[in-house]
Amino acid sequence: MSEKIKHYQGEALKSADIKEGKVPTEKFRPKVKFAWSAGIAIGKFLEELKKGKIIATTCTKCGRIMVPPRIYCENCFKPTDGWKYVKDTGTINTYSISYLAADASRLKEPILVAIVDWTVLLKAWG
Amino acid sequence: MSEVAIVGVGCVGFRPILPELSYKELMYEAAVKAYEDAGIDPRKDIDVFVTCAEDYLEGFSIYDEFVPDQIGAVLRHLFTVSGDGLLGLANAYMLIKTGHFDTVVVEAHSKASDLLTLMDVIAFALDPVLNRPLGGHPYYVAGMEMNRYLHDTCTTIEQCAQVVVKNKKNACGNPYAAYSANITLDQVLCSETCFYPLKKLEISTPADGCVVMVLASEKVAEKLTDKPIWVKGVGWCTETPNLETRDWSKAADTRLAAEMAYKTAKIHNPWKDLDLVEINDLFAYKELQHIESLKLCEYGEAGKLTEEELTARNGELPVNPSGGLLGMGYGLEASGTQKLLEVVLQLRGEAGCRQIPDAEVGLAHAWRGIPTATGIVAVLSNIR
Amino acid sequence: MFGKKRVAIVGAGLTLFRRRLKETGKELSYEASKMALDAAGMELKDMQSVVMGTAPDAFDGVHMKGEYLADGAGAYRKPYTRVFVGGGTGVFTPLAGWWHVASGQFDSCLVVAEEKMSSCYPHPQYAFTTIFDPILERPIGMNLIWIFALEMHRYMHKHGIKKEDIARVSVKNKGNALNHPCAQLGAKITVEDVLNSEIMAWPVQRLDVSPTSDGAGALILVSEDVAKEITDNPVWIDGVGWCIDSTLWTNRDLYYPDYVECAARMAYKMAGIKNPPKEIDVAEPYDPFDYKELHHMEGLLLCKKGQAPKLTAEGVTQRDGELPINPSGGLLGVGNPIAAAGLMKVCEIFWQLRGEAGKRQIPGDPRTGLAQAWGDLMQYGSVIVLRR
After folding, report:
1. Chains A–B, number of C-beta pairs less than 8 Å apart
2. Less crowded by CB within 10 Å, the N or C end of chain B?
């Protein structure tokens, strides 16, 4: 390391130091609540999901059928052109078996997660 | 070194709430307007995109993840400035000045209506060990500052209230304003005291909206538009986050930011050299405090200037002809861009019934709100 | 770069990286800034501007944490900006510092990156739930580990890469980190140790992953004129690049990071680099997971797609190899305080190019180095090219 630097600052603590009150701590839980507007596209998507259907938007310029639907094609930067129902089958693009919950604790039963290419989805990017 | 100009603006809002659009759709609409105004294709013509946002105002950690698609920035060069839209402008200005980039887009928005606990989030910005445990609504900080300011400057509460009357009335001519109103001085003075001596009608109410700006270097600006608005100087400064060590009656952050901007823009006598100013009036007294820290007058005189209507839209130096935040609504991190929008429209001659005749040089100012002491100033002109 | 302003790094500072540090975020920022100033022989009053990089506010537990950290980062009454691009922040912050000086607006800029993940309870991992879309993704209960696992699995599947090939990166980096004074998890491990470690989300195992950490780093950036006055050994920022891909990361093939290539091309163009594997002497790509080093080597055009595991197996990426990769020990060995991790990599290249990396010094006379960070939802790349 640079000859001028002799000392690297940092005093490591253990989890026990905090639990046993060896260092002063301040605990706080913020009140943070949101209600996000689903908007035009996702609003319709959720309505259709309630009916058991998956709806997509289409772009005639690049030919994509997009799920989740949006009011703009991000590739062409233009409004999307219409709606189309999509089959609920597909091919697994990749998968994993997770033994961890969202807070990093271990799950008793692992969960299977995957990314699915929809059957009707055309190749996304050229 | 190239000059920098604003060549396109797009605004959606501001409205008390915009529930029919998701934040993505809101940004898309404003971006489309800005790109049409500038006459550019975002997929080809833009070098850098800047978004201005804070995680906790949006409800997402790492907010820039959710930005590229709706403003045309997929597989392009985008980043987030955690600050006001005017700070985004400062960074866009520097990017173009490096000579490596020609066209930069700045986006800022507010979807305050999606955030159900805005005041709790603002309180969450207080120092977690020294201030937050005291509890209470965070705007007590504004009450304390107003009290000190009134004491030190002998400004009266009537003079503060006059700001509200002026700004809400100015907003009546502004299609982008959410809270325009014709109210009287008495109505303001009789409104409920919230954080002594700050009254309810003196506090800006949040609003939803989005502003997108397109900036360009000289050579590109000249091709795109015959009405470029030149950014003559930018300044920004953070005094300190600590409530215990800041100047409580003079907004030092704004004064230092102004000095920096005036130096580059060669403004020697602000009151004379500027034709209009759009400054932060999140709380009515803040407009007066900022008039002084922007060196538009001597310390303590802003109240009198307001009383004598020298800062009215038809006055000697119009302050907040848009209606300010009191009239337009508090657009969170888009507040500075609300001001920038008005200055650009005025300098282009596109401000409709709010138009200030022969406006050539304008100033836009932002303050990041409670509990910060961060100010940003930009001086703009339609003359190169 | 002729005709445009050059910017040099003249000092660097770094705190220890640990799972949990006593110092507050402000104190960490101060320690790193002070170290960098001392190393450069400068004082805070010499700094005309400050740029801070720090990742989700949810970790430190303060809204607008950029403002909160301002005084610790020396920004009292100075122009101060916080930039934030998720994990890419550590390399992005010096880029922001670069344009502060390259624009001519300032002659100097103090660049600081800080992260205090340990404040977040019950575990910093939990804060990551909020990086996902609240309507489409959060209800699934997403976890950062398994989105990486999805990408890792796709990469392995596309190129037929085995876990052993990937585990070698963890062995190399944790071994390299033994020589880093700030390292949290420097260790001598074997490929078997990695393959036998606890499965977190298949195919990700515990020793494939970098830890959560607290830490901070800082750099001093100055203009060419100032650099010539204060040092004989400036390190020039010759290339900057950054790029973001679509929010909808599930809509593309995860085996290759297009956004890293896009950022790299931007930086290479500016630096005049036409043949990266030949012209780059040392590189620090982002390695929060071992497979990411390989993924990023390919995205940085340092080798062909799918070839990075082969180079690792052949020892090309060791400190004494043809193209040393992560001589610092990377995030896997030194630690991963999100924003400060990327800055640690820039510090490493700075020290390597000056011959000041001590026991980690790569042999020869390295003149061109690169650091890269990755961020957001599998979508962000930031790249910096440094030259002596």
Report:
1. 74
2. C
- Closest residue of B to A74, CA-based? B69
Sheet holding A54-58, edge to edge: A65-66, A54-58, A82-86
| CB atoms C17 and A10 under 8 Å | yes
Domain count, chain C: 1
Contacts of A2 in chain C (CB under 8 A): 12, 39, 351, 354, 356
Look over chain A and give the mean of its residue pLDDT values, rounded to a whole number: 87
Judge if B219 and B88 occupy the same domain. yes
Cβ pair B237:C3 closer than 8 A: no
pLDDT higher than threshold 60 for residue A120: no
**Which of C136, C119, C64, C54 is CA-nearest to residue C88?**
C54
Domain span including residue C248: 7-121+211-387
- Is B123 within the bounds of a domain? no
Counts for chain B of helices (H) and strands (E), in that order = 16, 11
Average pLDDT of the residues of chain B: 96
Amino acid at C237: I
Section B110-129 average pLDDT: 95
Instruction: Give pLDDT tens digits for A88-103.
Output: 888 898 999 999 887 7
| Pair A82, A50 in one domain | yes
* Cβ-based contacts of A14 with chain C (< 8 Å): 20
Per the structure, the complete domain to which residue B253 belongs is given by: 138-205+230-381
Report the residue of C251, C255, C289 to disrupt the A interface, i.e. the one with the largest count of A CBs within 10 Å.
C251
Tell me whether residues C126 and A104 touch, CB distance under 8 A.
Answer: yes
Q: What's the pLDDT score for residue C2?
A: 45
pTM of the predicted structure, to 2 decimals: 0.96
Least CB-CB distance to B116: which of A30, A33, A77? A33
Query: Considering only CA atoms, which of B198, B196, B200 is closest in space to residue B160?
Result: B198
Interchain pair B61, C76: CB under 8 A: no
Query: Does residue B129 belong to any structural domain of this protein?
Result: no
Our CA angle for C168, C170, C175, nearest 5°, is 100
Our CA-based measurement puts residue B353 at a distance from the nearest CA of chain C, in whole angstroms, of: 37
Q: What average pLDDT does this structure show over C33-57?
A: 95
Asked if C383 and C240 touch (Cβ cutoff 8 Å), the reply is yes
Q: CATH number, domain at B27? A: 3.40.47.10
Strand pairing partners for C218? C13, C112
Partnered with residue C236 across adjacent β-strands are C8, C387
Residues B168 and B264 in one domain: yes
How does strand B208-217 pair with strand B103-110? Answer: antiparallel
Which of the listed residues B189, B224, B259 is the one where a domain comes to its end? B224
A101 and A57 share one domain: no
Q: Please, is A112 exposed, middle or buried when counting C-beta atoms within 10 Å of its C-beta (0-12, 13-18, 19+)?
A: exposed
CATH number of the domain that C111 lies in? 3.40.47.10
**Does the pLDDT at position A1 exceed 70?**
no
Domain with A104, as residue range(s), is 88-121
> Which residues in chain A are contacts of B72 at CB distance < 8 A?
74, 77
- Check pLDDT > 90 for residue C122: no
Angstroms from B208 CA to nearest CA on chain A = 12
Is the CB of B186 inside 8 Å of chain A's CB atoms?
no
Model confidence at C3, in pLDDT bands (50, 70, 90)?
low
Say what the ipTM of the complex is.
0.96
Report chain C residues whose CB lies below 8 A from the CB of A38. 135
